[in-house]
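Hi, here's the filled form for the chain we discussed.

Project: internal
Contact: R.S.
Residues: 190
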Amino acid sequence: MNVIKTDIEGVVIVEPKVFGDNRGYFFESFSERDFASAVRPLSFVQDNESKSSYGVVRGLHYQTGRFAQSKLLRVIKGEVLDIAVDIRRGSPTFGKHVAVVLSGENRRQLFIPRGFAHGFSVLSEEAVIQYKCDRFYEPAAEGAIAWDDPDLGIDWQIPAGKVILSAKDLSHPRLKDATDLPDFSEDLYA
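And the returned structure, exactly as it came back:
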């Protein structure tokens, strides 16, 4: 696999080696050994799948405290703009984001470490996303910030009138008003 660094330390793009011929293709979507060597040692405990249609924006979500999660995301079908926002207070990249197009065709994956909020917008007619988490989801530890926080400057690549949100995602606070954020000095992997 090929690991591409982004502008924020720890957030990386993972490109698998794809072997194709006239029959189709094969690739290893995840190897714990290779991932530990190239990115970081980690045990994933939960796999999730999400299907959404064009214009859907989900996010920006995170888990708080001891339930903070790392995620490894990939798109099985369609295309999304995947977003990771650094929410660690005191971080030199606090409030900055990484935006990566993931698709069934490019087979790229995005690794988002603990201490980041995550969201995506669907750019194709529909998209199916799979992602691994290194901690179990805990409803009581759910946190979120506003997807359209102007301080973040995220271009979701969806016209304003075409954005589809859940009722819950309409009412999250801006990053500057969030109270449950991790501190950069805290080791979220301890």
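Let me know if anything looks off before we file it.
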